[in-house]
Structures are given as structure tokens and as C-alpha cells.
Design brief:
Blueprint (H helix, E strand, L loop, with lengths): L10 E5 L11 E5 L8 E2 L3 H5 L5 H16 L8 E3 L5 H16 L2 E5 L7 H9 L7 E9 L2 E10 L4 H13 L3 H12 L5 E5 L10 H15 L5 E5 L4 H13 L4 E4 L10 E5 L4 H11 L2 E5 L7 H13 L15 E5 L2 E4 H4 L6 H13 L5 H15 L4 H9 L8
Parallel strand pairs: 1-12, 2-5, 8-9, 9-10
Antiparallel strand pairs: 2-11, 3-4, 4-13, 6-7, 7-8, 11-12, 13-14
Helix pairs in contact: 2-12, 5-6, 7-14, 8-14, 10-13
């Protein structure tokens, strides 16, 4: 994939070629990264597993057997997984990429799902002055939900604000949502980004998702500062997000959305030298410079498979999270615990076989072949996306105004 040819009224999008790209911008900003503290719902996982050769066949067979035995399907929404990389390791790899590959000053904001622990921990370690305390907020809305990147909470009230936002996630009251967003808005150096806005995370269908997105922006768009171009979404979807951003006079902003060991493939370039100044640039000037690194042009399915391989790969250097079963949790008989607790012997034979098979399939020599097969399977099962719906002539954003 490439950003070449992508257009947005308030944003410039570039492919990284060499150190001459945007020479006036001496700072690169990495936004939207996930660490071991991130709570990743297992709900979307089955759709991905079913597309993987061999593994998908085993998975579907066992799901049918489970339902036959128990009279009900497995509820994956009661489980979650954690990415395999610590906050310090994520921070170091983002900084290293920016300094060594781009020759820029680094600014990094880590946004774990519904957790601020990474930023708090890094500030305690004093890895750099003014580490942003940020997170990705799950915002229930009507019959679906959106993800909002909340960047750079004030340290003095970060915990209290986070608890209030988390309470909304657990017990949504839409009458209070605007008040929460307005409270976040009062801090001039807090940045609110609507992450991957055209991703139908709840699976409600493209038409309904687009209608809800329009409603969300109509009711709360005044408190959103930018829409995200996402490093793990397709160029087609990101291009459609650009059209939505133009309709609402919002800038686009980068979001790498890393969950594995590879650093972010999309960054922002800026003349700002601090995160405070970068936020003001986006909020007040409402302009943005997004750059795609060479990794963004690699096949998306291969990159996603590599992330999954990172998650299940044993890691002897991670105390308490050495095995993938330490990094996946679920509720069984009212007990919520890592799979290591539920499966002290490593799990059923089919699970252990599937994991070993997956690790073999995602090794370097086989990855291109498996990527091709996975893409072929996906083409036979995927539904029309919200981005495709936007192109279908409905044009629900054409008359929108902030």
C-alpha cells in the first residue's frame, strides 16, 4: 500500500523516500501503539482465525464440537489478549526508528486499550521528560462503539479522568458523553482522535455503521480534533476516511496501531518540538503532515499474520508472560484468569496442534505462500466494507457540517 495520490484538504500525506522528505519538519510523532497493558477483546479474533489455512479448518471443527457438547456457542467477548511487548520496549523501538531511520526528534504517545498504565510506568521510569499519559478509549454508542485516542492527559488529574471515562465504557449514559468530551477539551494540550472511524468493530453492517458514524460526528464532532489514517487498515479504507475528514473540516492524523514487535508504519512530521506544541498545531491550526514508511507498502495480510505470530511466540524474557496462554484470558465458570490457569497442561491437543502449525506457517519461508492463501480465503467470505458503502452513491457525509 502507498499514500501516494491520497488527498485531504487539511492534511498532507506523503510516502517516505529519504531524509529529504519534509526537511523543515524536524520532529516525527508516533501515535497509537499498544503494550502488554492493552486489553484486546477476543470478539473479532474468530473472523481472522477462520481465514488461516489449516488453522481455520481445525478452529471451525472444534467450535462446532463445542456447541454440540454444550448447547451454546463459545462467547469470545468474555475473553481478551494482551500484546507481547512491554511499554519500555515499545517506546525504545519507536524512538529508535524515528532517530535512526528518519533522523528526526522523536515524540511518542502510547495508547493501550482502556489503560493508562504504560504512560504512568514510563513517567515513573523517567525515560523522557513529559511522557504523554494516553489511552484508547472504548466509547459505546447506540448499538455499536467507537475508539477514541485520548492523548496527553494532565498528570495531576489523569487517574480521575481515566476512571470517569472507564465508568462510561462500563455503564454508558449517552447524555453524559458530551460532558466527558467537553471536560477533556478544557485541557488545551489534550488531543482527541477518532481512531479507524470506518472500521465496523461491532459487526453491525456497513450501512448502519456509516449512519452511526455520521450521528456520532453530528453530536460530538465538535470535540474531536482529527480522524485517524490507520497503519493496519487498507489504503481503500484510509482514502474513504480522508473524504469523511474533508466533509467535517477535520485534519487526518497518523495512527500506527501496532500490537506486535514491528514499529509503527505511519507517523506525523511536524516543526513542533514538544507534544504540547504538536497538539496545538493539530487543534488550532488544524493541519497535519502524515508520512508512510516503507513497511506500510508491505502486504497487509502478511503484516497482520506477523503480529499474530508475535503474540503466540514464546518469550523467555517476559516474566509471567512467557507463553501465549499467559497473554490470553477468559471467563470460565465465573472465574476470569489467563488460559494458563484454565489449561495448566497447555490446553486441548487440537489447540496445541493449531498453535504449532500456525508458528510453522508464519515462519519467513512460508509466510508469502500463507499470505496468498489467506487473502484468497478472505475474498470468498468478506462482506462489503463501510468504505465501499460510502462509494456506493449514498454519500451520507456530503452535506455534513461541523
Amino acid at each position: 500500500m502507498s499514500l501516494s495520490g491520497m488527498r485531504s484538504a487539511r492534511s498532507s500525506l506523503h510516502d517516505w523516500t529519504d531524509h529529504d522528505t519534509l526537511t523543515a519538519c524536524g520532529t516525527a510523532v508516533s501515535l497509537h501503539a499498544h503494550t502488554t497493558y492493552s486489553h484486546e477483546c477476543l470478539g473479532p479474533v474468530p473472523a481472522y482465525l477462520e481465514r488461516i489455512p489449516i488453522v481455520g479448518t481445525l478452529f471451525r471443527r472444534e467450535l462446532r464440537a463445542y456447541q454440540a457438547r454444550n448447547g451454546q456457542a463459545v462467547d469470545f467477548t468474555k475473553g481478551w489478549w494482551h500484546p507481547p511487548v512491554s511499554p519500555r520496549a515499545v517506546w525504545d523501538s519507536e524512538v529508535t526508528q524515528i532517530v535512526q531511520s528518519l533522523g528526526r526528534k522523536p515524540l511518542v504517545s502510547i495508547t493501550d486499550h482502556d489503560s493508562i498504565e504504560a504512560g504512568v510506568e514510563l513517567r515513573a521510569e523517567r525515560v523522557q521528560l513529559d511522557v504523554p499519559i494516553s489511552f484508547e478509549w472504548t466509547v459505546p454508542f447506540e448499538q455499536s462503539f467507537f475508539h477514541v485516542g485520548v492523548h496527553h492527559l494532565r498528570p495531576a488529574d489523569a487517574k480521575a479522568l481515566f476512571e470517569a471515562l472507564s465508568a462510561y465504557t462500563q455503564r454508558p449514559d449517552e447524555a453524559g458523553l458530551n460532558a466527558l468530551l467537553a471536560e477533556l477539551q478544557t485541557n488545551p494540550t489534550t488531543l482527541l482522535v477518532l481512531n479507524h472511524p470506518l472500521w465496523d468493530l461491532a459487526g453491525i453492517g456497513s450501512a448502519d455503521h456509516v449512519k452511526l458514524l455520521r450521528l456520532f460526528l453530528a453530536e460530538h464532532g465538535a470535540h474531536i480534533h482529527a480522524l485517524e489514517v490507520n497503519g493496519y487498515r487498507t489504503r481503500h479504507e484510509n482514502d474513504a476516511v480522508g473524504r469523511v475528514a474533508d466533509a467535517w473540516s477535520l485534519p487526518l492524523i497518523s495512527g500506527g496501531d501496532r500490537h506486535g514487535r514491528a514499529p509503527n508504519s505511519l507517523l506525523n512530521l511536524t516543526t513542533a518540538t514538544s507534544f504540547d506544541d504538536f497538539v496545538r498545531e493539530i487543534r488550532e491550526e488544524r493541519v497535519s503532515q502524515v508520512v508512510a514508511l516503507p513497511s506500510y507498502r508491505e502486504r497487509l495480510t502478511a503484516r497482520k499474520l506477523t503480529v499474530a505470530a508475535d503474540v503466540v511466540r514464546p518469550d523467555p524474557s517476559a516474566p509471567g508472560k512467557q507463553c501465549w496462554t499467559d497473554r490470553v484470558s477468559c471467563e470460565v465458570d465465573g472465574i476470569t484468569a489467563p488460559l494458563t490457569f484454565h489449561w495448566p497442561e497447555g490446553g486441548p491437543f487440537w489447540v496445541r496442534s493449531a498453535m504449532r502449525t500456525f508458528q510453522v506457517l508464519t515462519c519467513d519461508p512460508l509466510l508469502p505462500f500463507v499470505t496468498t492463501l489467506t487473502d484468497a480465503i478472505a475474498r470468498t467470505t468478506e462482506r462489503p466494507s463501510p468504505a465501499a458503502y460510502l462509494e456506493g452513491g449514498d454519500a451520507p457525509f456530503s452535506a455534513a457540517a461541523p
